[in-house]
UniProtKB/TrEMBL annotation:
Keywords: Membrane, Transmembrane, Transmembrane helix. GO terms for cellular component: membrane raft; myelin sheath; plasma membrane. Its main location: membrane. This is Glycoprotein M6Ba. It is found in: Membrane. Belongs to the myelin proteolipid protein family. The gene is GPM6B. It comes from the Eukaryota. The chain crosses the membrane at residues 21-49, 69-94, 115-145, 207-231. GO terms for biological process: axon development; central nervous system myelination; negative regulation of serotonin uptake. GO terms for molecular function: structural constituent of myelin sheath.
C-alpha cells in the first residue's frame, strides 16, 4: 500500500550517507575540472612557448616531455579518483543503519574495522597530497597573471606617456621553463601585447584558473571524506559490540 511504500522510502533515505554522497559529487566535479582543464591548458602553454618564446624545438624539448608526462599523470589521477570515489561512497552506504535494517544480523568484524581504518589512513594521505597539488596548480595561474598584468600595463595611458613600450617585457627564461640560451626567450612591447590577445593565451589562462579551483574543490571533498570515514571508523570500533552503525 501507499503508506508502506512511503515508510520504506523514508527508511531508505534515512540510511543514505549524505556527507559521503556530497563529497563524492564534489570530488568527481573537482577532479574532472582539474584534469580536463589542466590537460588542455598544458597543451596551450606548450604551444605559446614554442611559437613565441622558444622557436628552436630542441630548446623546449624537455618542457614538451614534462608536459606530456603530466598529461599522462592526469589520466591516471582521473581514473584513480573515479574508482576511489565510488569505493568510498559504497563504504559509506555499507556503514549506515540501512545495512543494519536490511540485514538484522549484520555485525562488524575485525576485518571490516581494519578496512575502514585503511580508508581513513588513505584518505588522510590523499588529502595532504592534494594540498600540494592545489598549491602546485596555483603556480601557472601566478605566471599567467604576471604576464596578463604586464600586458595591462602596456595598455595603460600613463605607461604610454612616460615610458617606451619596448622596455616592458616578459622573460620566460627567469622562471626556468626554458633554458637561458633559448631564442628569443622573452617578448617585449607590441609583441607581448599581441601574445596576450591570442586565443591560446586567453584560453590557457582561464583554464588554469578553473583547474586550480577544481583542485581546491577536491581538497574540500577529501576533507569531508576524512570526517566521514573517521566518524564511521570510530563508531564501528567503539560500538561494534552493540551492533551500532553510523548514518554519516
Amino acid at each position: 500500500n501507499v503508506s508502506g511504500c512511503f515508510e520504506c522510502c523514508i527508511k531508505c533515505l534515512g540510511g543514505v550517507p549524505y556527507a559521503s554522497l556530497v563529497a563524492t559529487i564534489l570530488c568527481f566535479s573537482g577532479v574532472a575540472l582539474f584534469c580536463g582543464c589542466g590537460h588542455v591548458a598544458l597543451g596551450g602553454t606548450l604551444s605559446i612557448i614554442g611559437n613565441h618564446f622558444s622557436q628552436t624545438p630542441s630548446d623546449h624539448a624537455l618542457l614538451a616531455e614534462v608536459v606530456q608526462l603530466m598529461q599522462y599523470i592526469i589520466y591516471g589521477i582521473a581514473s584513480f579518483f573515479f574508482l576511489y570515489g565510488i569505493i568510498l561512497l559504497a563504504e559509506g552506504f555499507y556503514t549506515t543503519s540501512a545495512v543494519k535494517e536490511l540485514h538484522s544480523e549484520f555485525k562488524t568484524t575485525a576485518c571490516g574495522r581494519c578496512i575502514s581504518g585503511m580508508f581513513v589512513f588513505l584518505t588522510y594521505v590523499l588529502g595532504v597530497a592534494w594540498l600540494g597539488v592545489f598549491g602546485f596548480s596555483a603556480v601557472p595561474v601566478f605566471l599567467f597573471y604576471n604576464m596578463w598584468s604586464t600586458c595591462e600595463a602596456l595598455n595603460s595611458p600613463l605607461t604610454n606617456a612616460t615610458a617606451s613600450l619596448d622596455v616592458i617585457c616578459v622573460d620566460m627564461r627567469q622562471y626556468g621553463i626554458i633554458p637561458w640560451n633559448a631564442n628569443p626567450g622573452k617578448a617585449c612591447g607590441s609583441t607581448l601585447g599581441d601574445i596576450c590577445k591570442t586565443n591560446e593565451f586567453y584560453l590557457s589562462y582561464h583554464l588554469f584558473i578553473v583547474a586550480c579551483a577544481g583542485a581546491g574543490a577536491t581538497v574540500i571533498a577529501l576533507l569531508i571524506y576524512m570526517m566521514a570515514t573517521t566518524y564511521n571508523y570510530a563508531v564501528l570500533k567503539f560500538k561494534s559490540r552493540e551492533d551500532c552503525c553510523t548514518k554519516f
